[in-house]
Amino acid sequence: MPKRTDIQKILVIGSGPIVIGQAAEFDYAGTQACQALKEEGYEVILINSNPATIMTDTNIADQVYMEPLTLEFVDRVIRKERPDAILPTLGGQTGLNMAMELHRHGLLERYDISLLGTELSAIEQAEDRESFRNLMYELNEPVPESTIVHNLQEAEAFVEEIGYPVIVRPAYTLGGTGGGLVDNHDELVEIVGSGLKYSPVTQCLLEKSIAGFKELEYEVMRDSSGQAIVVCNMENIDAVGIHTGDSIVTAPSQTLADREYHMLRDSSLKIIRALEIEGGCNVQFALSPESFEYYIIEVNPRVSRSSALASKATGYPIAKLAAKIAAGYKLDELKNPITGTTYASFEPALDYVVTKIPRWPFDKFEAANRRLGTQMKATGEVMAIGRSFEESILKGIRSLELGRAFLTHPDYAEASEEKLIDKLIRADDERLFYIGEALKRGYSLEQLHSWTKIDLFFLEKFAGIVKVAEMARAYPNDEEILRMAKTTGIADETLAAYWNTTEKKVRSQRLDLGIMPVYKMVDTCAAEFESETPYYYSSYEEENESSKTGRPSVIVLGSGPIRIGQGVEFDYATVHTVWALQEAGYEAIIINNNPETVSTDFSVSDKLYFEPLTVEDVMHVVDVEQPEGVIVQFGGQTAINLADGLADHGVKILGTTLEDMDRAEDRDKFEAALQSLKIPQPLGRTAVSTEEARVVAADIGYPVLVRPSYVLGGRAMEIVGNEKELLNYMERAVRVNRKHPVLIDRYMVGKEVEVDAISDGETVLIPGIMEHIERAGVHSGDSIAVYPSQTLSEQTKQTLAERTVAIGKGLNIKGLLNIQFVIHEDEVYVLEVNPRASRTLPFLSKITGCPIAKLATRVMVGESLASLGYESGLLPEAEGVSVKVPVFSFAKLRQVEISLGPEMKSTGEVMGRDQTLEKALYKGLIASGMKIPNHGTVLFTIADEWKKEALALARRFHAIGYTITATQGTAAWLNKEGIPASSVAKVEEESPNILDFIREGKAQFVINTMEKQKKAAADGFRIRREAVENEVVCLTSLDTAGALLKVLEMITFSTEAMPAMKEDRTNEVMA
Amino acid sequence: MKRKLILENGAVFHGEGIGSERETVGEVVFNTGMTGYQEILSDPSYCDQLVTLTYPLIGNYGINRDDFETMHPSAGGLIVKEAASHPSNFRSIGTLSEWLHEKDIPGLCGIDTRRLTKMIRTAGTLRGRLCAEEAEEEEIVRELQQWVDPRDQVSRVSTKNAYHAPGNGKRVVLMDYGAKHGITRNLLSRGCDVFVLPYNATAKEVLALNPDGVMLSNGPGDPEDVPEAVETLRGLIGEVPVFGICLGHQLLSLACGATSSKLKFGHRGGNHPVKQVKTGRVDITSQNHGYTVDRDSLMGTDLILTHVNVNDGTVEGVEHREYPAFSVQYHPEACPGPSDANDLFDQFVRLMNRYEKVPTRM
Fold it and tell me: Which residue of the set B27, B316, B319, B333 is catalytic?
């Protein structure tokens, strides 16, 4: 059956902001889906609140609505657009939940909207634990012993029966939020308690733990006729017990014989057919390492993170084909886009090994509980392809950008035996490196297996890798060893360290010996059919399949795995650069290693190299492609960090020169530059010792902002109020020395303003000025940004524009620049200049309509802004008000401090857009997931220094009818100030205290400011965590609270008794 | 030990020897299955062939007791990128290389198998010789170019004597052209009473067993090399329900007047989509054949095209217009590969039920 002709207009629901468990993979899926439907001639309406995505570009769908993904707004869009159909299975769990909600409220029926793809009943069957289990019983497919619980008593009864350990999985949550492996009664109380809270249906599944089994995934596709295929199977290196999103994964499976492979394949096809899925689906299995016994762990009745991975691992575009299937096509009617000659109804054959390694945020959240379990904690992932497992996994390690190029690292050499064993048994993000260390120390593989449960196949491979490395260490510069090391996948960097030489020397030795990699094509069919796909990976093999074409080319470096501080917005910029280069007549070549993104869709660029982003790996591509130059401005810190190394090999870096970039990034040079431009900046100096820091800080005057010289997303940056705090910081947070000084700046309280601009050195175009809601001191990525600015005077805007132009010209920027300013006592100070794409680029592009990345790219390849029709200065302000609101994933990261500060903590962002600031904020806040009830209780816990400011806020809350509650002292003070407030017991006091108050849902909002004093700080931390874990809105900046109040004041009304008559003078007259 | 593969086009691949150290000559083919090397190497259809596996990591799960498709493997050799020396699987009883040694099958590892595969894809199936590193290349290339392919493979791999695998259901005579165990297994699991006969058994010999049906097995090589089998089938079609697989399908087609020809590089793997003409149903199938029934040649015969390959449109299945006889080019018995089409065996049993005769026991 070809496509449906009874529908014309299709609504696609996106996945909203990036949070842990739902990331860039849905930008990839959504973009593919929209394009696929448009290709078929449908009118596509998209709703998504995430501005940092390609899918929300206006050329991806016919109409793009950047509105909150809530019933209220989706309903509005539906009423306005009246779509014939809706496609919910490509927007992650968010899209699916939205569709269910529309259905439950009868909206699909009311507006006669048909649902494309899988039926809701099937989705419910797959997602609802109980009906899913019943279906599995019917199909005779095994599921682990389990029970559904609705309260703790039921959980206790189940454990009584089957014993510990058990796994807790809350129903209908993302990435297993709130779940975990439970070993004892205390953990049971904790995890079941939070699980029930997170589950929108107050339901948890408790199941017998099958930890230690092999974990396998099958990515399956089915069409409406019942044809079903397996696109890819994957084997987790980590055994069952660690969330698949947190597991190291290989594709295809490595340790399954044909019989097991097909046993699970048959099972997954049986399930997808029984559920009548139309599109993609993911089935997770646990397989005994000792027998054919297996269990179904979970089924995702939609496109998922794993399907993005499977698409990139095989070349088979699952989301695109899922969209076409949803539109009515059958698999055998669709061409395989890779070969162009064969059809979509086949199963890809791989002739390489794919490895995926998760990227965790623990470098940012040092206090977080790093242990891995059933709750996903990774923010992103890398994928690597090789012709051997060794090559693949080592490329993966390099791609992580953890400062580790190999399986072993000196950092782990110090670990005590006890710690080492503990790390092997209780996996955390570093287990791979502890395995390397254990192998170096000579532990037996059986021993390692008993601790890690990792299959001996993989341990054997790791041992082999370590062995080759040790041989290399023992025989410096030996040709045969060098050859072996390179085939094994060991980086020049590692060899250089072993051989006490430089990476450059190892490379030239290789060049002399002709030890260079070749490039192989990813073609879905193991070379059986001819393919034209420009999708390559390197390997130390014989035949090279990639060569330079006749056209001039430019290499664009991607931004690697998604992490806090470097998110999908850089992928957005990368993709736009590619498009701009193509438009300008260049062949655009991407190097990147993130399987979740649009940039690694092979159809985006002219050539895609799926490789680690290191100097060595990029140089190999440069050697083959001989490009006109390399663009590093769009790939975040990842790409910028490679610029020096590449230039050192004579590679031309397009755009701003390295010297000029250095003038922006090197402190002293930057200060000199600003001075010569007569632009003020906060006083600041560097210090190379703790003593020097003390002197500098005293000299500048507290409060000061301290940070290490190398910064990514504000890492380890703090505002320090006095000397004692400074000494504490110096001891705890940084390793200071001559090579790595700390930077100490005067902290200026004031409004923070951010500007993105494009400069060609002559003309500096400023698309817009964004004003932050939170005052300086909160990382710009965690602040609410408003465009256009609401409070700046024309004079200030003028000054901002002038200074931006002066800096662009003065630093001779060719391409992008982003400047953070602080307005302190009417003076405009420059905080920092970033000569590269910023986080705000997609947001600003979208709301101003200015193609920022494109213009910057054209400038970088030599065109002038003037020739493109632009002149210096600020573009006229666009209509309406837009806000960018950060989104956090605190619920998934236990023990993480949620308080906002100079360290970036958000994982994603949403946009709110309307005619007034209040309306835009309302949309932004609810899109970010905040619940905004129009009455209720606000709990204030305020440090003394903030009390005065907080009073005004409390008064406003009171005025619109909120009840105010605070701890005793604060409550008494509020009462004294004329604001009725009830009191609640402190943390250390007996139950019921403030924590119970929050836990029991008695507060709708918690406003809590950081305490400097230790004891109070610890209490504050518990209050904040309690709020997060119970999904209560917790605001740590009074500015954010002020913004929330603006919204509340808009949506609520005060109720006042009528005033007594004052002007009645009749009585007087009578008298 | 360093060894190499020399091809008739002059290409040489240098690698490490695994398994037997004897020299061997054969057609170099490739299989794209990512699992199933044990089944592939023991499938008699690969008789004499040098099998290249495109998945680079082979031998990961070792060799086990159960997954053989014949007792005496006849594959000419094995070519892989990497042969696992430390397999890991609960059923593993040894490494691939050890088993190759034991069965005297030579192998080569450590070569760019993708390069070799592309070469075969472009040039078509090539003859090659697996030999020691020192071997004289030019001379071998000349020899290879003049090499005459053996035509006696079926006779070599077929059983020499008839034997009986008893069951309580339908009596099936399995014509063994190089049958995989999987076929017998599938018949037995449906309760069939199986008599396995040599490839050159006559129609009279077959019918003397009073079978309810005749199953034509897979097997190696060109169907035109076994005219005696075609002759036998002419005597069976219409007498008794017939179901053919792979070579059996080709022989049935020839017996009905169709012709066959050699494919450029064959279909070998577990991911080939096959469409049933009547219903549109597509199965992912396990395949292993170098020859195909010519689609045009079905015109004017009594055969109806029932299945086609989705990718290249080649004939994947036929059915006799009048008589109870059908066949498929692919392997419904799977092992290796998917069992999507396994219900064809049920179809065969149903066919036998429909054509039930009064049994006259011998």
Answer: B333
Q: Which residues in A lie closer than 8 A to residue B112 (C-beta atoms)? A: 541-543
Find, in chain B, the residue whose alpha carbon is nearest to that of A460: B86
Assess if residue B362 is contained within a domain.
no
> Do A255 and B82 count as a contact with CB atoms less than 8 A apart?
no
Q: Which of B30, B57, B271 sits opposite A353 (nearest CB)?
A: B57
Q: Is residue A444 a contact partner of residue A468, using CB atoms and an 8 Å limit?
A: no
Q: Cβ of B121 and A527 within 8 Å?
A: yes
Q: Tell me whether residues A258 and B117 touch, CB distance under 8 A.
A: no
Q: What is the DSSP string of A974-1033?
A: HHHTT--EEEE--TTSPSSSHHHHHHTT--SEEEE---SSHHHHHHHHHHHHHHHHTT-E
Tokens of A239: 């055994």
Pair of tokens at residue A846 = 């979208």
pLDDT digits (tens, 9 = 90+) for A101-139: 999 999 999 999 999 988 888 888 988 878 998 999 999
Per the structure, the count of domains in chain A is: 6
Q: Which candidate in B131, B246, B256, B335 is catalytic?
A: B246
ipTM score: 0.97
Report how far residue A704's alpha carbon sits from residue A719's, in angstroms, rounded to the nearest whole number. Answer: 6
How far is Cα B205 from Cα B195, in angstroms, rounded to an integer?
11
Residue of B nearest to A454 (CA): B88
- Say whether both B104 and B158 belong to one domain: no
Establish whether B319 is a catalytic residue. Answer: no
- Give me the catalytic one of B249, B267, B289, B331: B331
Which amino acid, one-letter code, is at B256?
A: C
| Token code pair at residue A875 | 């573009």
What's the pLDDT tens digit per position in A559-611? 999 999 999 999 999 999 999 999 999 999 999 999 999 999 999 999 999 99
Active site residue B335: no
Query: What is the reported pLDDT for A309?
Result: 97
Residues of B in contact with A330 (CB under 8 A): 280
Q: Which of A654, A670, A699 is the last residue before a domain boundary?
A: A654
Do B243 and B311 have their domain in common?
Answer: yes
The model carries a pTM of 0.94
Single out the residue of A90, A5, A607 nearest to residue A323, CA to CA.
A90
Identity of the residue numbered A625: E
Query: A881 vs chain B: nearest CA distance in angstroms?
Result: 54
CA of B102 to nearest chain A CA: how many angstroms apart?
21
CATH of the domain at B342: 3.40.50.880
Cβ separation A342–B311 shorter than 8 A: yes
Range of the domain at A175: 145-209
Q: SS3 for B113-176, per residue?
A: HHHHHHHHHHHCCEEEEEEECCCCHHHHHHHHHHCCCCCCHHHHHCCCCCEEECCCCCEEEEEE
- Alpha-carbon gap, residue A866 to A860, rounded angstroms: 14
Shared domain check, B281 and B176: yes
Q: Are residues B342 and B209 in the same domain?
A: yes
Residue B118 is part of a domain; what is its CATH number? 3.50.30.20
- Which domain range does residue B335 map to? 153-354
Rg (CA), chain A: 29
Number of domains in chain B: 2
Chain A residue closest to B279 (CA)?
Answer: A225
Dihedral, A230, A231, A235, A241 alpha carbons, nearest 10:
-80
B12-19 and B106-109 as β-strands: parallel, antiparallel, unpaired? antiparallel
Residues in chain A predicted with pLDDT less than 70, given as ranges, are 1, 173-176, 709-716, 733-739, 1012-1014, 1064, 1066-1071
Out of A389, A460, A542, closest to residue B112 by CB:
A542
Which residue among A654, A675, A700 closes a domain?
A654
Residue where a domain terminates, one of B102, B118, B146: B146
Pairing of strands A535-539, A553-557: unpaired
